[in-house]
Design goal:
The chain is mainly alpha-helical and about 300 residues long. About 70% of the residues lie in helices and about 5% in strands. The chain folds into 2 domains: about 170 residues, no CATH class; about 60 residues. The chain contains 10 helices and 2 strands. It has a two-stranded antiparallel ribbon. Helix 3 packs antiparallel against helix 7, helix 4 crosses helix 5 and helix 8 runs antiparallel to helix 9. The model has no long low-confidence stretch (mean pLDDT about 85).
Length: about 300
């Protein structure tokens, strides 16, 4: 695995939340708004990267009998550091995250990467793995946080919990801004899908059905962007439940269902490709056998 692949694997292929369902407690508890999701992600990036580095440095010195306790002590050290720093420089974030900051110690993602990767690889590779996995974890939290905050309030606010770079809270995205970004994403997705189908000789009806579904979603987004008034208050339509605990399960369930459907389509396509390859080899073997039999009869 190249260093680039090692870094990028945490975003999609081995995303801790969307693929392996690791670290689900913060994914459900601290993603009510974008800021708390981003804040937790930043803390996890630091703890995961630094613990990976230290574990890799000490991997030949820690006895196997006390390996797991040693990893927990290392992780707890960096969790204590981020807890003290967040309390000093981002007190509102510290209060909002509450008990979930010390619970980073037992986050299965961090302990799992220490055990599965950092204890077996070099310092540089372990640092890249930790940073990439941390970014993938943060990416997942931010996606869920934006999804929930937009559905609950219609806006994405920055500056209430993270007092960096702004003097007072600002609106990063309004509902129309989110719809516009989704339009751009859907257009990009459709362009990539058209190119993929055009180049893929094994493209089937499933690929075209997915394109039709995305075109329908694009049309719906265009209509919403065109006809939803700028002063539309989404919280008046009972969607503010997405800011509460049930909304976390609904939002995460929708995202995981989408991701799982992609995995199922990919798996089914690989199975169909393997079946086609087996059929072609069987056909070639039968043709070869028939040719040999014909040759024997002729002789």
């Amino acid at each position: 695995m190249t260093k680039k692949e090692n870094f990028l694997k945490g975003f999609f292929k081995e995303n801790p939340i969307f693929t392996f369902l690791l670290g689900m407690c913060p994914a459900l508890a601290v993603t009510a708004v974008f800021e708390t999701a981003l804040g937790m992600g930043l803390l996890v990036i630091f703890v995961l990267t630094m613990s990976n580095i230290v574990v890799s440095l000490l991997r030949n010195l820690i006895p196997d009998e006390v390996r797991t306790p040693a990893y927990i002590v290392i992780i707890a050290t960096f969790v204590t550091i981020v807890g003290m720093v967040s309390k000093a420089f981002a007190y509102d974030l510290y209060l909002a995250l509450g008990v979930f900051i010390p619970l980073i110690v037992v986050n299965c993602l961090i302990l799992g990467r220490a055990e599965a990767y950092a204890s077996k690889n070099s310092v540089l590779d372990s640092a890249i793995d930790g940073f990439g996995m941390g970014l993938g974890f943060t990416f997942a939290l931010v996606v869920i946080g934006v999804f929930r905050e937009v559905l609950a309030t219609g806006n994405v606010i920055y500056g209430e919990y993270l007092p960096f770079f702004v003097a007072e809270p600002i609106t990063l995205l309004s509902l129309h801004g989110v719809l516009f970004l989704l339009l751009l994403v859907m257009i990009l997705v459709l362009v990539l899908q058209f190119r993929k189908v055009k180049k893929d000789p094994d493209a089937d009806i499933t690929d075209y059905r997915l394109i039709y579904i995305n075109i329908f979603i694009l049309v719906v987004l265009v209509l919403l962007f065109a006809f939803v008034p700028t002063d539309f208050n989404i919280s008046e339509y009972a969607l503010n439940m997405f800011g509460l605990a049930p909304g976390a399960f609904i939002a995460l369930g929708l995202i995981l269902a989408f991701n799982q459907s992609r995995s199922v389509r990919k798996t089914n396509k690989e199975i169909a490709k393997q079946k086609k390859l087996i059929a072609e080899r069987k056909k070639a073997a039968l043709a070869k056998k028939a040719a040999m039999a014909k040759k024997e009869v002729a002789s």
